[in-house]
Amino acid sequence: MIKPATLKRDKSALNTLMNFIGYSKAVEQIAYKDIEGKDGLIKHLQDKGCTNVGINTTLAHIGVFFNWLYEKERIIPEPIKIKKLKTSNRLYHFFNELEIKKIFNYIDDSGIDSFYKRCFHFYNETGMRPTEAFIGELVGDWYIIDAENRKNGIPMQMQLNEELKSILLEMQLFRDTKSHCKDANVRVVDILERTITDIVRALGLTGKRLTLYSFRHSYGIKRITMLNGNIFEVMKELGHTNTKTTMEYLRFPLQRRLDDFPSLAEYVKNQPKLTKNTIRATKIRATLY
């Protein structure tokens, strides 16, 4: 009942815990001080340079294990509740147009298989999560992912052009060559992630943490601008479960969006007028209701 990606993260979190407290310690002996104490796991991870966001993710998966020990197996006498660390709002890390161009040129010039360039182009044009390219089915021009296979439980229905359909089938064929692996989907995403990480490092693209997921954020910023700030439409396209996640793309000033994506100039030019109209419409609605 657990998705492979979630299982992988569970295992990683438990390995982190065991590497810290030791593999011989009985679970009944695990206490708050092992996690939250002055010399506990949290302090250990902070000293290693881990961010509070990353630490909270690890703690959440460890918490699932503790809940299982208490609620399902009754191995520990009382539940262990771990407080999350305070986090501040952070801007999404995305590839701008110049960085994407540099990545594609690097692939062409360095002899890296052009297959990876096509994969990155696919993510940049669709905004899919890394694993979503491998868990759906192409029906005509429509790529469909059932609700139970998506992170948020919302089915995907995305229309693809001929170019993107061709790339998608190529990506899935590549996945099929890894069928001998325990989880071919995760294995292929790992390969793509490692490739983009190596390219980013080789190009010296510093100042922000760029990953395969960054193509999705690039897509989100472009779409929120192209659709004149239509939160609900972009939310639907990206498969977000609430508008708060989508609204993070509006935290980027229009001028920055124009600086990072010059191709959006025509859309950005109309934004000031749109903002005035939106404010006026809001006032009218407030009067009527």
Secondary structure layout plus pairing:
Layout: H1 4-21, H2 32-36, H3 41-47, H4 52-72, H5 97-110, H6 114-126, E1 137-139, E2 142-145, E3 156-159, H7 162-176, H8 184-203, H9 214-226, H10 231-238, H11 243-247, H12 254-260, H13 265-269, H14 271-288
Antiparallel strand pairs: 1-2, 2-3
Helix pairs in contact: 1-4, 5-8, 6-7, 6-9
Summary, kept brief:
With 289 residues, this protein is mostly helical. It has 14 helices and 3 strands. The protein has 2 domains: 69 residues, no CATH class; 175 residues, Orthogonal Bundle (hpI Integrase, Chain A).
Describe this structure in words.
- There is one protein chain.
- With 289 residues, this protein is mainly alpha-helical.
- It folds into 2 domains: 4-72, no CATH class; 97-271, Intergrase catalytic core (hpI Integrase, Chain A, Orthogonal Bundle), CATH 1.10.443.
- It has 14 helices and 3 strands.
- The protein starts with a helix and ends with a helix.
- The relative contact order is 0.09.
Features:
289 residues, mainly alpha, hpI Integrase, Chain A, 3-stranded antiparallel beta sheet, 14 helices, disordered C terminus
